[in-house]
Amino acid sequence: MGQKVQGVQYFDDYGRKEASELTMKVGGVANVEKHIRTIADGDKIISIDLDMKVANKATLPVKPVNYLNLTDEVRELHKIKEVGTEEILGRKCTKYTLEVVYGGQTTYSTVWIWKGIPLKNETSSNGMVIVTEQATEIQENAEVPAMKFLVPEGVTFP
């Protein structure tokens, strides 16, 4: 049930640079693939439609949580609770629950964190799980091409 999306998450410079590439099927019977690259830098994000060659810049409404440096302020803001450990892909993860309130809507997440990286995330709203993401492979010390963190040539911003 729901839409399946395949993605690759890239980290470089010890997590200071983050990018993801997603491939999803759209159009029902037509089985058209859509390719999206997202580049994140703190609370700034660029979303690129690699097929249409257009991009949008935005500021995230809520700054991403840095699980390597959880302050009391961030723990309180998002009601973050450490609820145990669990192994994912052979890595011991710390499991957290948290709440994010945006636009009057509260979403609840459970995240499994390994070395500051979420390997699994379940997000729910109104008692229903709306998104589940889980890593299926980890490549440590992999060479990440610098171009993964750049807007490709020919892409325009409206």
Automatic annotation (TrEMBL):
Q: Which domain of life is it from?
A: Bacteria
Q: What is this protein called?
A: DUF4412 domain-containing protein
